[in-house]
Structures are given as C-alpha cells and as structure tokens.
Amino acid sequence: MSKQAMAELKQLMNEVTLIGSTAAVLGWDERVYMPRNGSAHRANQLAYLSGLRHEKFTAPVVGKLLEQVEGTALVKDPISADAVNIREIRRAYDKATKVPKKLVEEIAHTETVAQNAWVEARKKNDFKSFLPHLEKMIGLKIKYAEAVGYDEVIYDALLDDYEPGASTKSVTAVFKEFREELVPFVKKILNAPKKPDVSILEREYPVDRQRIFGEAVAAAIGFPFSDGRLDVTVHPFCTGIGPGDCRITTRYNVRHVNEALFGTMHESGHALYELGLPREHYGMPMGDAVSLGIHESQSRMWENMVGRSKPFWKHFYALAQGTFHEALADVKLDDFYFAVNDVRASYIRVEADEVTYNLHIMVRFELEQGIISGEIKPKDIPAAWNEKFTSYFGITPKTDREGCLQDVHWAAGLFGYFPTYALGNLYSAQFFAKAKQDIPDLDEQFEAGKFDALLGWLRKNIHSQGQRYRSEDLVKVVTGKKLSHKPLMAYLEKKFKPLYGVK
Amino acid sequence: MSKQAMAELKQLMNEVTLIGSTAAVLGWDERVYMPRNGSAHRANQLAYLSGLRHEKFTAPVVGKLLEQVEGTALVKDPISADAVNIREIRRAYDKATKVPKKLVEEIAHTETVAQNAWVEARKKNDFKSFLPHLEKMIGLKIKYAEAVGYDEVIYDALLDDYEPGASTKSVTAVFKEFREELVPFVKKILNAPKKPDVSILEREYPVDRQRIFGEAVAAAIGFPFSDGRLDVTVHPFCTGIGPGDCRITTRYNVRHVNEALFGTMHESGHALYELGLPREHYGMPMGDAVSLGIHESQSRMWENMVGRSKPFWKHFYALAQGTFHEALADVKLDDFYFAVNDVRASYIRVEADEVTYNLHIMVRFELEQGIISGEIKPKDIPAAWNEKFTSYFGITPKTDREGCLQDVHWAAGLFGYFPTYALGNLYSAQFFAKAKQDIPDLDEQFEAGKFDALLGWLRKNIHSQGQRYRSEDLVKVVTGKKLSHKPLMAYLEKKFKPLYGVK
Fold first, then answer.
1. pLDDT for the residue B292
2. What ipTM describes this predicted complex?
3. Are A352 and A358 within 8 A, CB to CB?
4. A226 contacts in B (CB within 8 Å)?
5. pLDDT at A30
6. Residue B142 needs a FRET pair 20 to 30 A away by CA distance; which of A85, A243, A299, B123 works?
7. Band of the pLDDT at A1, cuts 50, 70, 90?
8. Percent of chain B whose predicted confidence (pLDDT) is above 90
C-alpha cells in the first residue's frame, strides 16, 4: 500500500522534474543563443511551463500520497532514500501550497517590473525611482513569509527557501564570531606595506587563448565536455539540465584575465556537483543538491582553494606563460600568484577577493533582517547601507550605485539569498580542511596537475548524498563538527599572512 | 455561446502549441548544441512533452468544443479565420483520435529501432538486415492508414498527413503529364555535348569565408538574424520555434561550395515562410503553414529560382570572387553559373540537380503506392526500385546503398512524404511565374541585389494566408489556375536549353 503510493509519488515528481528540466533548457537557450526577437514568445513558453509545474506539484493528490507514506515503515530509517524523499517533498509541498497563487503571480510580475526599474535606477544612480518598486517587493515578500510561516523570526521563512533548515539565529551566531576575527584581520592586510602588482593581470590576454586555457583548466579539474558545454554570456552561470547534461558559461575580458579564468573554475565547481548527484535518484530530492550554500561551497572550493592556490599555479603557470606569452613572459610565478590573491577594500561585491567578500555578505544579511522585520524602512536603506558598510570596511560608498543599488537580488525578490554566499565560503573551508586531512598529499597532487582525488572525495562525501542531509547536518556528518568560522579563518590566515607579511 | 466555446478552443490550442514549440527548442538543442551524454535524458523530456501534447490535443473537451462551434455563424464564411481554424482543428483532431494510442507508441518505438537498423544496413549495403524492420513499419503504417480512413486508395491516408487534402489520383495525374515531358528533356540534356566544368566548385573554399558569404546572402534575401540563427549540423534543417524565432542550420564542405551556399538559401526559404506566418493567429491553424509541399515551394524558390539564377549571380559574383579569391579569381561568371546548374543522372536524391530531382521523387512515389497497397512485397523493393529507376534514368544502381537504402524516410515511417518534395518544385514554379508576371522587373531587381519585392509578394500571397486554403486551393487562388506541370517545365526549358545548347 505505502510502496504503491511511494511509486506513484515518484512518478508525479518525475513529471514535475521533467517540466523543470525542460524550462532549464529554455532558460539556458534564452541567455545563450536565442535570437533577440524570440523573447516575448519565450516568456510565454516559460510562464506556461512554470504554471504547469506548479499545478502538477501542488495537486491535492500529492498531499494525499504524502499522507499515505508518512509514518509508515518507509520513514523508519530517517536517512534512507525514501524517508529523505518524503521529508523533502513534504517540505516543498507545504511551502508551495501555503502561498496563494495570486501572491506568487504578483511577486513574479513585480519581479519583472522591479528589475527593469532597478536597471534604470542603477544606471542613473537614482534610488528614489527604484524605491516604490522596492517597497512593493518588500511588502510582498513579507506577505509571502507570513504565508509560509516560521519558528522564530520572519526572516527565517525567506532564508529557508535557499538554505533549507537554516535559522537566522544560527547563521547570525556563526557570522558574528567570524566577523569579530575577520574585521581586524582585514585591517591588518589593508595596512600591510606589501602590495601585489595587479597591473600584470590587466595586460592583453587574447580572448581566443583565454578560451583555450579556460577549457583546458576546466577539463583538468574534471569538467566533462561529453556531459556539458562552456559558452559565453554577459552574466556567467551554471545550469543543470539533467543526467549527462550540465552547462556553464563565462565572459572574456581581453584586459582582465581573472574574470573568465576563475569564473570558469567557479562554474565548473557548480557543474561537478550537479553531475555528481546520484543519477539513480534523479527527479527526487535524493538526487538533488542540498542548498545554495552547499552548492556555493563547491564552486568556491574549486575557484579559490584550488584555483587561487600556490600548488595549482606551480602546475599551470608554465602553460599560462606559454599561452599568454606577451603578458606573462617577464612575470614570476610568485608575483602572478600574489596578484591573483590581491585583497582590497572595494565597494562592489562581485569584484571582491576571498577575504573581504564575506564582509559584503554580512552587510546585506544584517540589512535584510532589518528590512524584513520592519526595523529598517525601505527609504532608509541607503543610509543604513552606508553606515554598516563604513563600520566594516572603513570606507564609505560615494553613490548608491556603489552601495545599495549594486545587486539585482532585492529587485528580484531574493531576500534570504545573500547569506548562502558566505555560508558557501564557510562550508568550503570546513570541507576542504577535512579533505586535506583525508588526503594528506593534496598539495603535491595539485602540483602534479591531479585533481581526481579531491573530486572523488567530494563525490563520495557530498555529491552522492543528494539531499540525504540538510546543510547543517551534512557539515557535521562529513567533518565531524558543526559549522564554524574557524576553518575559513585558519585558511585565510595561513594563506594571506605570509603573502602580505603580517602576523 | 459559440463565441465562448471558440475562445476556450483557442486557449486549449494555444497550450498545445506552446508544448509543441517547447519540444521544438529541445529538438533544435539536441541537434545543434546538446552535449553527447545528454541524449538519454533528452529522449525522456521529448517523450514526456509528446505524450502531454497528445493528451491535451485529444482530450474529449476538444471534441465537445468543436461540436459547439461547427455549424454556427462562425463557419458561415468558409475562409474566415474562425471557419478555417475549426475546419483544420477538426481534421487533425479526428486523425489524432482515430489512431489507437498503442499504435502511435508502436510506430514511435519501431521508428527508433528501424532507423538504427537502417543506419547499419546502409553502411553495410545489407538490405536483408533491414527487411524485417521495414516489413514491420510497413505493416504498422497500413494499420495506421486503415485507422485514419481514406476516400479512394489507402495511400491517400498517408499522403494527407503531409499534404492535407491532396489525393493520390490528382498527384498521379500531374506527375504523369510532367514525367512524359521531363524524361525526354532529361535525355536531351544528358546527351548534349556541352558540359559544365564542375571541378571549379570543388576547389578550396575556406569554411570561415563560406560562413561569412552564406550569412551575407541569407541576410540579403531577407533572413532576419534578429529573429533567427544559422548554426552548423550534420543534417541541415529549419525549425520554427515561434514568433520572432526561427532557426536554420547548414554544413560546410571545404571542397564543395554548393552544399552550404544553396543549402543556406533553401533553409532560409523555409524560415522566411515560418517568420511570415500571421502572428495574430499564432497557435491556431490560421497561423500555421499549409503543408510540406507549400513549405518546400518556398525553400526551392529561394534555392533554385533565385539562388541558381543568372541575375542573382550577376549581383553576387563579385562578392563571391572577392571572398573566394583563390578558387574563383580565374573563373568567369558564365562558367560558374553553368557549373552550379550542372545536370546529371545520379543515384542519390539529395545530390540531384533541379531537373532530375523530380524523377527521383517519382520513383519513390510510385513504389510507395505499391508498397502500401500490397502490390509490392517489402522483399521485392530492391528489384522494383532498380527497374523503375532504370526506366527513368537509363542507369541502374549497382548497390542498394545507391538505391532503395539511401533515404531514412521509410525507416522513420514517413510514407507519403516524398511526393511533397516534387509538389514543392511544381508549386514553386507556378508561384514564381505569377510573381514574375506581377513584378515584371524581377530579374533587374535580383541583379541589383534587391529581393524585397519577391519576399513581399510571397508574404502577401502565401505566408500571410496561414492555412486559409489547402495547397490545391491556394495554388488556384494565387495563380488563377489549378496545379500544372507546365510552369515548371517551361522554367526548366527556358533555363537549361540555352545552357546546354539543346532545342
């Protein structure tokens, strides 16, 4: 009886997944190759698929089937595939059915309008023109959070969309301890007399050779071009279509080698996670990624802990010099390595280095809580932003464009999304420390151009788990300890103290 | 009441169209950019969409709504948009609901298996290994035709899938008259002592420059790159995604300039038709193409009547010589023009010139009728093919690979499809003769690189009509006469007699 219900539930979820993965192909195509005038029709296609998916997923039969499997022998072992699937389908089903369809549509509509308004406002540095849209979106997201419900504070409901099970309280606690060590550490580095010569990264790096180098690096770390593609878009992204098909994009800047190089490694990290999910569970939570934070831990690890490491460049620098001969022939490995690890106080999050990046997130995390709780009025966001930013960075944005207008997230209604970036950094350091413990010669392997041991470790410990554990538990299961700022702080200190000659 | 039903019917058809156009994106992606290992998942996605589309289209509610609008004031004017939509939805609905789902699935399954068997059989020139699959497919298609029903002969039911309303009898009549003049004409040309030097087309034509030249020509004849793309695939095709989005592909052969050049013009012709359909009727038959034959008339006109014409090359030859300087610097326009109009008896349809091409189709059309009526047993196809081929071409295929194994169509169950290729040639000549009558200086316009008057004429007379008329009627409405072989015969004689110096 319950087995039959479970089989039916799987069948329905498989349908929902196929619709979602179809939309993923259309979304990829829209951003990569769609002709310009196809956009109106594409919006119709995607709106239809999104409605169809919602209709299938929130059908009362799903609720009935869940009731038939919950509390049965299927969930006896809470980390068995069936139990995990039931747990996570229930979570998503409750969320999806609690929100009135009208509210979903209103958010979707406001999202489109507000994003367009944001583009204009950012261009003209005109927060006031964006304010009514932001106010509307905040109001809607508060309604959404109320509809979904929460245990402690209202922001929990939003955070949970991107980091299931995480609470404002626990994230705040980790961020606070982290910040208390990070802020003085950042100051030390910024005051260090030693500075890298970053101009060497801004020499001429021909795009066609960047492409060859980037694809070589992606292939070397394990991105399988039989199961994916690398294309060019204005905003780089990774999209998993389904088993055997995960695609990444990048953008090339002829006068800045970093963007495509580390961007490609970052997106490759996301793709390796997607492609490493257990195929036998495709279509069910057991075959899906845990959270945005865990996803980001994978991209960040390959981008920073691998791609910006000395052992990595010991292996790849000769190839880089050969590929970018005009730019790098006279540059020493140590100078290149220092340059790609430049740390500086900057206003723009997406351009931030791996040390200061986390402070950018903390600014947003704290503001978002105030915005959603109502303590910060939308009109007061610019002032609140600048105050908070100054206290962490010691510099004050001169314009809102450099401040609260820089990111699209709020216009898109993505409150609760930002913290997952810093959580990703924290997870990545804690996982990487454990991986190094389990594979003691990891540095030597990187120096030899071998990355399969690390990838194998990630596959075994993280990718193959699907959603068996929520992020908090996954960290504990994999590393034996709950999430802490210490591994990331230790990693940053070990790497950047000698680079900058600080103690 | 009937207006309300009509609105509901439109809503349902719109859904069906969106599902179909979503599958079109996935199909395009599969053939153009999908990573190799994505194919199993893609098959699942497409099977799901195909089932969903069928389910929505054959739902009893569609039949009920049709009954509510048929015989009402909506169909009073039989060529009004509503009447046309009702007529064509009824036709498709009856066909779709008459065929048992099991038979549809069996055909789909056999298609996949038989196509794989065909690939192998063709490679090894082994008809026997293909025979059981072909027998099965023929049996299924006969069952299909019986299920669908027909007025006169069983082959009508299949022909009607691709050329709605056409009958075996009427097509046979036109082909017969055509053949009686074409066969002796072909003989005359083949016996002419004058022959073009086709080796000039087999010099080196760098692929990157072919691409630039091909895109320039496509843009010049009106293919809008804002509403489409040109990509590379093994088998060139055109796919309409929806309003503002129609994509074509080609393939480049560095040692044969014809393939990409005329192939691009051919696919552009298909795309111009798709993009010229009336947008306000998108999703309904009034916004859709008439038939495969009418579609082919558009591709053939741009490929042959424009692309292989002297006025076209008077305009484009200087650009061709500049683009392919090494290949064409010493070649005179007249010699190039003669070479691209080479006529020869050949075994392979897809390589045939515009004169003999029609005979290739007639061979297939006659064999198909015998196969479906049961007069020709599947095992006797090779002998029947060779006999028929010899009688039309005067040469006999030495292998089945050059004979009945050359095309994929029968393996794919596409009986009734071939005649639309020759019908397309016939329509194109009859339309083109009328266009020349309406626009007397068409040649001068081509010489000046202007193609908008022809495109405008096609849009007004053909594209914008959607499915208002079935093909037979469309020809009458546009040209004032029923379909005849005379315009095509006259066109061929006027063009090829002076080229080959025959009378």
1. 98
2. 0.93
3. no
4. 35-37
5. 94
6. B123
7. confident
8. 97
pLDDT tens per residue across span A358-372:
999 999 999 999 999
Q: Tell me, what's the pLDDT at B272?
A: 98
Residues of A in contact with B40 (CB under 8 A): 243-244
Nearest to B25 among A21, A26, A242 (CB): A26
pLDDT of the residue at B1: 78
Please, are residues B12 and A42 in contact by the beta-carbon 8 Å criterion?
A: no
Does B101 have pLDDT greater than 90? no
Residues in chain A within 8 Å Cβ distance of B49 = 22
- Residue carrying structure tokens 């740390």: A343
- A229, B15: Cβ pair inside 8 Å? no
Distance of residue B370 Cα from the nearest chain A Cα, in angstroms: 42
Locus of tokens 């610097």: B329
Question: Mapped to the 3 state alphabet, what secondary structure does A367-407 carry?
Answer: HHHHHHHCCCCHHHHHHHHHHHHHHHHCCCCCCCCCCCCCC
Instruction: Tell the residue number behind the tokens 């992204």, with chain if given.
Output: A237
Report the chain B residue with the minimal C-alpha distance to residue A19.
B45
A12 CB neighbours in chain B (<8 A) are: none
Q: Which of B41, B49, B228 sits opposite A244 (nearest CB)?
A: B41
Q: Is A66 exposed, middle or buried (0-12, 13-18, 19+ CB in 10 A)?
A: middle
At CB < 8 Å, which residues of chain B contact A?
15, 18-19, 21-22, 25-26, 29, 33-42, 44-45, 48-49, 224-229, 241-245, 247
Average pLDDT over residues A185-201: 96
3-class state of residue B20 by DSSP: helix
Q: What is the pLDDT of residues A294-341, one digit of tens each?
A: 999 999 999 999 999 999 999 999 999 999 999 999 999 999 999 999
| Relative orientation angle of helices B452-461 and B419-438, to the nearest 10 degrees | 110
Which residue is associated with the tokens 């509403």?
A: B227
Distances (CA, A) of B312 to A334, B320, B447, B454: 62, 12, 6, 13
- What integer pLDDT is reported at residue B112 of this predicted model? 87
Contact across the interface for A224 and B37, Cβ inside 8 Å: yes
Helix A419-438 to helix A168-191 angle, to the nearest 10 degrees? 80
Average pLDDT over residues B418-441: 98
Sign of CA dihedral B218, B219, B220, B222: positive
In three-state secondary structure terms, B316 is helix
Q: How far apart are CA B360 and CA A236, in angstroms?
A: 50
